[in-house]
UniProtKB/TrEMBL annotation:
Domain ABC transporter: 2-225
An annotated Gene Ontology molecular function: ATP hydrolysis activity
Family: Belongs to the ABC transporter superfamily. Macrolide exporter (TC 3.A.1.122) family.
Name listed for the protein in its UniProt record: Macrolide ABC transporter ATP-binding protein
Keywords: ATP-binding, Nucleotide-binding, Transport
SMART domains in the record: AAA
GO cellular component: a single term: plasma membrane
Gene3D superfamilies noted in UniProt: P-loop containing nucleotide triphosphate hydrolases (3.40.50.300)
Entry coiled-coil feature ranges: none
Pfam families documented for this protein: ABC_tran
Domain of life, per lineage: Bacteria
């Protein structure tokens, strides 16, 4: 499903060039649950941005479902992000004036899906993540864990081939973190491909495969039973 070959990405900071990814190669199969670990500056966030088509590499090849991502136009990249990738962020990124249904429906605003179907999908997904009783509550009326569940439902609304989760438990207490990871594990068991970035080893271990990065390179891969 995902193939990276010799991916390189660097940034300029004044007169200094910082190599964020240094000739990284890897593959991720459909229905895998993969987590990236590493300290600040290891390259894991840059990796997430490239996998999510939010940034493009300086060199190397990125294939997503057979598409050469680094050869696509900005418009084509936007289409891939909207149709194939669901994003979950540490800070939820919910709109405060919209209720749960409104937030979940947002990615469908510029699609061909009718308003009626969008509402039905949003309701079904909120039920799926255990928020059937909170559909008409706005973010400030919900706990952190409930807001993250809304964000997960929003990530699923376009029926993506892949979910990218960036520190999905970073703002949550340990009990709520376990609940969110149990939900992601259940989604994976139902066939969802999930790629996650975290700095917490106990969270990373929920994944099938743990990839550890340092100084822009992969230094280890561990498969969990």
């Amino acid at each position: 499903m995902i193939t990276l070959k010799d991916i390189r990405k660097s940034f300029t900071n004044g007169e200094e060039t910082i190599v964020a990814l240094n000739d990284v190669s890897l593959s991720i199969q459909e229905n895998e649950f993969v987590s990236f670990m590493g300290s600040s500056g290891s390259g894991k966030s840059t990796m997430m941005n490239i996998l999510g088509c939010l940034d493009t590499p300086d060199s190397g090849e990125y294939l997503l479902n057979g598409n050469a991502v680094n050869e696509l136009t900005d418009e084509a990249l936007s289409k891939i992000r909207n149709e194939h990738i669901g994003f979950i962020f540490q800070t939820f990124h919910l709109l405060p004036k919209l209720d749960a249904i409104g937030n979940v429906k947002l990615p469908l605003r510029y699609s061909d899906v009718s308003e009626e179907e969008a509402t039905q999908r949003a309701q079904a997904l909120l039920e799926k993540v255990g928020l059937g009783h909170r559909m008409h509550h706005r973010p400030f009326e919900m706990s952190g864990g409930q807001r993250q569940r809304v964000a997960i439902a929003r990530a699923l609304i376009n029926r993506p081939t892949m979910i990218l989760a960036d520190e999905p438990t970073g703002n949550l207490d340990s009990k709520t973190s376990d609940d969110i990871m149990a939900l992601l594990t259940e989604l994976h068991q139902q066939g969802q491909t999930i790629v996650m970035v975290t700095h917490e080893e106990n969270i990373a271990d929920f994944a099938q495969k743990v990839i550890t990065m340092k100084d822009g390179q992969i230094i280890s891969e561990k498969t969990n039973s």
